[in-house]
Amino acid sequence: MDRTLKVYTKTDHLFAEFVFHYDSTNQATASYIQYQRLYRDDEEDEMKSVYPLLKADIYLQFKQFDSIDQIKNHDIEVVKKELARDMTDPRGYTYVYDDSPILLRYVVANHIGFIGIVDVVFNFINNTKEVKFLSGTNPRFDFEISSNSLETNLSCILRIPVYTDRDLREIRDHELTKLAPWY
Questions:
Q1: Do the Cβ atoms of 56 and 35 come closer than 8 Å?
Q2: What is the rounded distance in angstroms from the CA atom of residue 24 to the CA atom of residue 3?
Q3: Are 52 and 35 contacting, i.e. CB atoms less than 8 angstroms apart?
Q4: CA dihedral defined by 168, 171, 174, 179, rounded to 10 degrees?
Q5: pTM for this structure?
Q6: Contact at 8 Å (CB) between 122 and 29?
Q7: Which of 75, 84, 85, 147 is most exposed, with the fewest beta carbons within 10 Å of its own?
Q8: In a 3-state reduction of DSSP, which class is residue 8?
Q9: What does the DSSP assignment read for 15-84?
Q10: pLDDT tens by residue, 23-67
């Protein structure tokens, strides 16, 4: 359910960008940047120039959604609440989800050592998610999962079986370190 929502004004200037994260069990967070136009309405601005005005992190109530449309409606409500604006005019603001695939990489390690790497490639708006575990011990222990945008990255990762010296088990959430996203 990780996703990026961009909000544009009626003049096609970027107004805000919300990035929703689900990195802990039953916990949702978001970070957003609100932008200000560089030029006034009466000045010509072909490049649609903006600059960051406000950055904030917020904690959201975790919800398990049944459809992409429910998530979209939820996100619009979050934007309205956080930016404290009347955004009901359909011509006033445009809500756009990034349609390019995004790669998130997690390092899996514990107190004993390195276990492996998990790559999550997802596209929220196209409802696709591919999770690949690359074992740090042997390629035969590599594992892949396909899912949809309604399942969190963490819930997919926690289903991956890991072979250790002693047993077969699943990855634990405290063993994950998220690396910076690759766009």
A1: no
A2: 15
A3: yes
A4: 140
A5: 0.84
A6: no
A7: 84
A8: strand
A9: EEEEEEEEEETTEEEEEEEEEEESS-TTS--TT--EEEEEEEEEEE-----SSHHHHHHHHHHHHHHHHT
A10: 888 889 999 999 988 876 656 666 778 888 999 999 999 998 999
